[in-house]
Specification:
- By secondary structure, this protein is an alpha/beta fold.
- The chain has 3 domains: 7-59 and 175-231, Elongation Factor Tu (Ef-tu), domain 3; 63-169, NADPH-cytochrome p450 Reductase, Chain A, domain 3, CATH 1.20.990.10; 245-388, Nucleotide-binding domain of ferredoxin-NADP reductase (FNR) module (Rossmann fold, 3-Layer(aba) Sandwich).
- It is 37% helix and 20% strand.
- The strands form 4 sheets. The chain has a 6-stranded antiparallel sheet, covered by helices on one side. Strands 13-12-11-14-15 form a 5-stranded parallel sheet, with helices on both faces. Strands 4-5 form a two-stranded antiparallel sheet.
- Helix 13 (326-334) packs across helix 14.
- The longest helix is centred in the C-terminal third of the chain and has 17 residues, at 348-364.
- The protein is globular, with a radius of gyration of 24 Å.
């Protein structure tokens, strides 16, 4: 990237080549998870963020995966391609496109149709035809769910694709957004991230989260450029520092609330702060435990409720802790507290929302419909905000 780019021009379309200052493991030995703390250097970028914003990171794919795709394609990597969806002014080398511009996962029916038209081996042709049969829609969906493009090249070697044909089937490699876990007041020129590193196995192959392992494994601290931009968000602490703040952030959902707390303490906010945090095990998964203990000791955090699901026979979650503290939680809400949720959208955020409605109804003496209206009004007043994914 040219040094001539003025700082104000850095954006999603022209990301800043940042450097990683720190890559630290947060989870402890014995944890089923790998959660890391990253510090990104924004000095010289002209980029500014506020608590609640996200940092966009453009990753690159694993070199070994790119190499295997080229090998199975029978390509050198120097072939020039022009993937239509990239809208390039001129063609690029296939290796470069596979490394930095195209996603190598989530194949669709379209590639199966193309392979079916090119396969020459009878067994492969029969298998592909079976996957494309009208009655095999669910079978095809399950098949594709457990495969990436490299699997298809391995399983149907007689279907010879050109470099351009493969490139035309790949989606654009998109940036990942991570909630900012720091306050610019406290850490000027830096942005902190809390990232769950994704590693798993499907179809007897090791799979990884492209961006989480890019940061964890492939970026050298202080050396490798990390293309980043700031993504502005509606999510943020109360503009009025006198307002109380209730934050529910299990797992990496804790990230923005670390930023909230740093921001509110630095700004001298007088409102109280209540944090709900949950994960699997206290001894291995209590993210930023020392920091929360310090916040409690100094009175910056009025209350900390934790839920570690695997520390007892019956699993306990943040919504359970909310119900246990229903009377006080309602007192805070009735007094004008803002309520925030960050993390998993599929289950946690839904379950927390259900618990919130129940608490409003039971503690407020409302009917179900009245509780629904109360929570809707909280949203309209921006007292109930969610950053879920």
């Amino acid at each position: 990237m040219s040094d001539a780019v003025p700082p104000s021009a850095y954006s999603k379309d022209r990301p800043f080549p940042a450097r990683l200052l720190e890559n630290r493991l947060l989870t402890k030995p014995g944890s089923a998870k790998e959660t890391r703390h990253f510090v990104v250097d924004l000095r010289g970028s002209g980029l500014h963020y506020k608590a609640g914003d996200s940092l966009g990171v453009f990753p690159s794919n694993r070199p070994e995966e790119v190499d295997e795709i080229l090998r199975r394609l029978g390509a050198s990597g120097d072939e020039l391609v022009s993937p239509a969806l990239l809208r390039l002014a001129e063609p690029v080398r296939l290796r470069d496109a596979l490394a930095d511009r195209l996603a190598l996962s989530k194949p669709t029916r379209k590639i199966i149709e193309t392979l079916a038209g090119k396969a020459t081996h009878p067994d492969e042709r029969a298998r592909l035809a079976g996957l494309l049969a009208p009655e095999a829609r669910d079978v095809l969906a399950a098949f594709l769910e457990h495969r990436e493009f490299v699997d298809l090249l391995a399983e149907f070697p007689s279907a010879k694709l050109t470099a351009q044909e493969l490139a035309d089937h790949l989606r654009k490699l998109m940036p990942r957004l991570y909630s900012v876990a720091s306050s610019a007041r406290v850490h000027p020129g830096e942005v902190h991230l809390t990232v769950a590193v994704v590693r798993y196995e499907t179809n007897h192959r090791e799979r990884v989260g492209v961006c989480s392992t890019f940061l964890a494994d492939r970026v050298q601290v202080g050396a490798t450029p990390v293309p980043v931009f700031v993504s502005d968000s509606h999510f943020g602490p109360p503009a009025d520092g006198a307002k109380d703040c209730i934050m529910v952030g299990p797992g990496t959902g804790i990230a923005p609330f670390r930023a909230f707390m740093q921001e509110r303490v630095a700004a001298g906010a007088s409102g109280r702060n209540w944090l709900f945090f949950g994960d699997q095990k206290r001894n291995t998964d209590f993210l930023y435990e020392e920091e929360w203990a310090d916040q409690l000791a100094h009175g910056h955090l009025a209350r900390l409720d934790t839920a570690f699901s695997r520390d007892q026979l019956l699993k306990i979650y943040v919504q359970d802790r909310m119900r246990e503290a229903a009377a006080e939680l309602w007192a805070w809400l009735k007094g004008g507290a803002h309520f925030y949720v960050c993390g998993d959208a599929k289950r946690m955020a839904r379950d927390v929302d259900v618990a919130l409605h129940e608490i409003v109804a039971e503690q407020g003496g409302y009917t179900h419909d009245q509780a629904v209206d109360y929570v809707k009004q909280m949203k309209r007043d921006r007292r109930y905000q969610r950053d879920v994914y």
